[in-house]
Design brief:
The protein is an alpha+beta fold. 39% of the residues lie in helices and 29% in strands. It has 7 helices and 8 strands.
C-alpha cells in the first residue's frame, strides 16, 4: 500500500511539473507577443545603366527569399516610371533586422552609381501582414504612388490628425489595394505615403474623393517646399509581382 501511495504521489508531482512548464511556456509566448516590434525601411538604389537588368534580378531574388521567412511582413521592389535606374526596396519585419544578402551587397559595390540611401520609418495607422500582402488582380493596371512630405515644424501633429480621420475612408475605396502613411524614425516632420491602386481610374477617383480635401489643403499650405507634387514618385513593381 505504501509503495502504491508513493507511486501515486510521484505521478502527481510529475504532472504538476509538466503543467508548470506548460504555464511558463504560455507566459513566455505572451511576453514575446507583447514585445513584438516592427522594423520598416525603404532603400533607394541608383543603378548604372549596364547593371540594371542584373541588379533587378538580384533584388527580385532577395524579395522572394524574404517573403518565405516567418518574420517577414512584406517585401516589394519597384523602379521609377520616369527613370528605371532608380530602384526602391520596401521591407517590414517582426522582431528581426533584415538579413544582409551577400550576393546583393557584392553586386552593389560595382552596380551602383552612388551609395544606397536607407530610410527607417514608423507606420502610422499600421496594417496587418495579411493586408500588406493583398494584391491587385491579374486584369488590373496597378498604379503605385509614393509621396514624400516635409512638414513645417509645429504642423506635423495636425497632419497626423487629418490622416487619422481620413485613413479608414481611403482604405475603404474599392480601387485601393494598399494605403499607408509612415513617419521617418529620426525626423518627426518628415513623412511618406505608399498608395497602391488597381488602376489610374481608381487613383483619379481617390483624387476627387471628398475626404481627401483636408489632406490636399494641408499639403498646399503646411509643407516646406511647394508644389507638393514634386515629392510624388510613380513606381512600377517588378518584385514579387504577385496577382490574384
Amino acid at each position: 500500500m505504501k509503495t502504491n501511495t508513493t507511486k501515486f504521489f510521484g505521478i502527481l508531482t510529475a504532472l504538476f511539473l509538466l503543467y508548470s512548464t506548460f504555464i511558463s511556456a504560455q507566459k513566455s509566448n505572451k511576453t514575446v507577443t507583447q514585445k513584438q516590434e516592427m522594423t520598416a525601411k525603404i532603400i533607394r538604389y541608383e543603378v548604372k545603366k549596364e547593371y540594371q537588368e542584373k541588379f533587378q534580378k538580384a533584388i527580385s531574388n532577395y524579395v522572394q527569399e524574404s517573403l518565405l521567412k516567418q518574420n517577414n511582413i512584406m517585401a516589394e521592389a519597384y523602379f521609377e516610371q520616369e527613370n528605371q535606374s532608380i530602384i526602391w526596396l520596401f521591407e517590414r519585419w517582426i522582431n528581426e533586422k533584415p538579413a544582409n544578402n551577400s550576393k546583393l551587397l557584392t553586386l552593389a559595390k560595382t552596380a551602383l552609381a552612388k551609395p544606397e540611401e536607407i530610410i527607417y520609418i514608423k507606420d502610422l495607422e499600421p496594417i496587418s501582414k495579411e493586408e500588406w500582402r493583398r494584391t491587385s488582380k491579374t486584369e488590373d493596371k496597378q498604379l503605385t504612388i509614393m509621396l514624400f512630405i516635409d512638414a513645417k515644424p509645429g504642423t506635423e501633429e495636425n497632419f497626423k490628425k487629418i490622416y487619422h480621420t481620413a485613413m479608414p475612408q481611403f482604405r475603404s475605396e474599392p480601387g485601393v489595394v494598399t494605403y499607408q502613411l509612415s513617419e521617418f524614425e529620426n525626423e518627426k516632420t518628415r513623412f511618406v505615403t505608399f498608395e497602391k491602386f488597381r488602376s489610374n481610374d481608381a487613383f483619379q477617383y481617390h483624387l476627387n474623393f471628398p475626404p481627401i480635401q483636408p489632406v490636399i489643403d494641408y499639403l498646399n499650405t503646411s509643407i516646406k517646399k511647394q508644389p507638393f507634387q514634386d515629392g510624388i514618385h510613380n513606381l512600377i513593381e517588378f518584385a514579387p509581382l504577385t496577382r490574384e
